[in-house]
Amino acid sequence: MTVAERLIRYCKVWTTSDPESHTHPSSMREFDLAKILVEELKELGIADAHVDEHCYVYGHLDSNVVKDVPTVGFIAHMDTAPDYSGKDVKPRIIENFDGKDIDLGNGVVMKMDSFPYMRDLKGKTLIVTDGTTLLGADDKAGIAAIMDALEYWKDHPEAEHGRIAVAFTPDEEIGEGADLFDLKEFGAAFAYTVDGDSVRGFSDENFNAGSADVKFTGFAIHPGDAKNKLINAAAAAAKFQSLLPEALTPEHTEGKEGFISLRSMSGDVEHAQLSYILRDHDAGKLQKMMDLMAKDAEWINAFYGEGTCEITFAKQYRNMKEILDQHPQVSRIAWEAMNDLGLDPYKEPIRGGTDGATLSYQGLPCPNLGAGGNNFHGRYEYCVVEELETASKLVRRIAQRTVEDSL
After folding, report:
1. Judgement on whether residues 131 and 280 belong to the same structural domain of the protein
2. Whether 53 and 163 share a structural domain
3. Going by DSSP bridges, is the β-strand pair 72-77/190-196 parallel, antiparallel, or unpaired?
4. Which stretches of the chain score pLDDT less than 50?
5. 301 and 323, same domain (yes or no)
6. What is the total count of domains within the chain?
7. Are strands 346-347 and 271-280 parallel, antiparallel or unpaired?
8. Catalytic residue among 79, 138, 139, 195
9. Are residues 121 and 102 in the same domain?
10. pLDDT of amino acid 77
11. CA distance 152 to 134
12. Is 79 a catalytic residue?
């Protein structure tokens, strides 16, 4: 089975995670892919392959070298984002892409004016959607690359590698992918998530993440008798949102610039609520955003009356760079492997998070690699087959580099 065939097979399995379920896994359908992967792992000689009760798949390939080599791990997630439908995915292959607009079908056209960087893919082979669902290359491309590497090792026992740990996680897209990850079961000294876009990209830092829930309590009374009495919770919520700098919204930020993003709003005269996520690569700047929002809440209470506004903050995940800087060899091995393959690699901070961020703070240094996908979480998602093939080679080269690094 080619790596592209693997990706297409995995993409057809519905694995959308559910942020409202509050169960682990969040959707039982994630087991459908997990069971397929366990069977494939066993066929590839991974005798201990299994899925646990929380839908985490684990397996190990024994070392074929005599020397003492640390166990290196590779991780990808099985679920797809709830932002867009992942049911009945119908991938198709475009060979020798001409660099022009792509008619996906069902009245949907992927216009190059909207995605100008895709013009550089002229001549490549793409896997795309039919315009009605996302593709699922995030992160089934990562799974396919890891599985393809395992198949290579099975067919080429002469290729040197130490002990390899693999894991496929549920619920990464809803921020819970590492919550019940069994580090002891995984047993790696360090690992890499294969969960990025371009195979040339390497990420050893990500956002620090927080959230803010803002509740507003009003005082309802007949509008005809409202003067100096009525407190409109919905209006107070609108006022709070207007106090936040427009420049700090996601649509006005890029690179390492952080943001405050309004995710949901609801309310009436008596009660209203706003929910936000806050992101920045600098923990100090993230705290300043929280301080700013806290001051805005104080202003609302001063203007409308004490008790009108209540704000609650929570910190979610942290920038893995703080940990990875303490383990420079982990990033170095990957960077050297990318150069070995002639990839002309570049470092790119993740404007989001990965399982690796949480795992790094749990004691498993874990930067991120790319697998060739892009335009994630929507109908315009695609994967470059040539990059997917290279991602498999990168997994293998990292394992070989780990052996060489242990000389």
Report:
1. no
2. yes
3. parallel
4. none
5. no
6. 2
7. unpaired
8. 79
9. yes
10. 97
11. 29
12. yes
Of 295, 315, 335, the position where a domain reaches its end is: 315
Q: In this structure, are 285 and 361 located in the same domain?
A: no
Among the candidates 298, 315, 332, a domain finishes at 315
**Neighbour tally for 251: CB within 10 Å:** 8
Which listed residue (151, 172, 355, 381) is catalytic?
Answer: 172
Beta strands in 50-116 (DSSP E): 50-51, 57-61, 72-77, 92-94, 102-105, 108-110
Omega before 291 within 30 of 0, i.e. cis? no
Is residue 69 located within the same domain as residue 143? Answer: yes
What confidence score (pLDDT) does residue 407 get?
58
For 317, phi then psi, to 5°, come to: -130, 165
Cut 0.85: pTM above it: yes
According to the model, what pLDDT value does residue 46 have? Answer: 98
Nearest Cα residue to 99 out of 121, 125, 117: 121
Are 277 and 182 in a shared domain?
Answer: no
> CATH number, domain at 328?
3.40.630.10
| Peptide linkage before 25 cis (omega within 30 of 0) | yes
CB count in 10 Å sphere of residue 229: 10
Side-chain half-sphere CA neighbours of 79 within 13 A: 30
- CATH number, domain of 266, equals 3.30.70.360
Phi-psi label, residue 211: left if phi above 0, alpha if psi -120 to 50, beta otherwise: beta
H or E segment and range at residue 304: helix 283-304
Are 251 and 292 in the same domain? yes
Which pLDDT does position 334 carry in this prediction? Answer: 97
Catalytic residue check, 172: yes
What pLDDT is recorded for position 354?
85
Question: Could you give the strand order of the β-sheet that contains 382-384, starting from the edge strand earlier in sequence?
Answer: 92-94, 126-128, 382-384, 373-374
The H or E element that residue 324 is part of is helix 321-324
Domain that holds residue 216: 208-315
